[in-house]
Amino acid sequence: xxxRNSSVxxxxxxxxxxxxxxxxxxxxxxxxxxxxxxxxxxxxxxRCETLCCLAFARMNGSIGTKRESxxxxxxxxxxxxxxxxxxxxxxxxxxxxxGAAVVCDPSGVLYVPxxxxxxxxxxxxxxxxxxxxxxxxxxxxxxxxxxxxxxxALARYDxxxxxxxxxxxxxxxxxxxxxxxxxxxLARLMAGREWIWITGNHDPEPPARIGGExxxxxxxxxxxxxxxxxxxxQSAEVAGHLHPVAxxxxxxxxxxxxxxxxxxxRMILPSFGVTTGGLNVLDRAFHGLFDLQFAKAYVIGLxxxxxxxxxxxxxx
Length: 316
What we know:
The structure is a single chain. The protein is α/β, with parallel strands linked by helices. The chain is built from 8 helices and 17 strands. It has helices at 10-16, 25-39, 45-55, 80-87, 127-133, 142-156, 174-177, 180-190; strands at 66-67, 93-97, 100-104, 110-112, 117-120, 161-164, 194-198, 213-215, 217-220, 223-226, 237-239, 244-250, 253-262, 266-268, 279-280, 296-300, 305-309. β16 and β17 form a beta hairpin. α2 packs across α3 (45-55) and α6 (142-156) packs parallel to α8 (180-190). The chain is globular, with a radius of gyration of 19 Å. The chain starts with 9 loop residues before the first helix and ends in a 7-residue tail after the last strand. Mean pLDDT is 79; it is low at 1-22 and 39-78.
């Protein structure tokens, strides 16, 4: 059962009018992309955004748009962590994966209600500390912030089992060097739950003194859960590793956001760690992983999650 109202169809929502809420310029670009994907090439992107602007004239907010400019340095974007915190108020979206109902949560976790299973990928805990050990200094708060977001996600669902899809720690030493306060926080999140660590390329060994079970992959129901997706595997698969993001453009503007990528059979989860980057789903690293006829990016906005077909997306 979804703990929020399910995401509405964007096209029908625009046609019928939606209640006031958060809708920014970038959010309207996402709606534009979803509307085009829903209705096909009949709608001009400029006209579509005009419809969105009219429908959401009373709404306001900010989610980090940028003009198409080669010298844009991203200085106008919302602080990434502040945006992540606001996205926890976004509506979840229920979809199907290999014929079973799953919930895409705006935090970036996937929840399977019948299994009471929560899946999260690419936490990259202790990334700041790993960089510091190599002489590059980042703010050392990434682990605490990531665990706080994970705690919020766990509080929204009645999960009895958690699968972490690899790269949970940024390097082999992350778990051993984790500060006591963060270790205690993680222990509280794990308490009373079956906790499975899938090995990743950053953390190929079991996390030191953390607990839980460490596996290379695990099958649950119709799905195989692993860190890296495999083009040779044709059955239902849930993976991470690639940090999928999608870019939508319209009326001279664009927005880029983390997303769940899926064709209904395979799904790649967004990276969860607060200091992780992203790779566009149109990059060649994703080629051959999805049936393009059905492939969608479930782009995480501030108001809701937007399902947008790969063919309506932009590179970059």
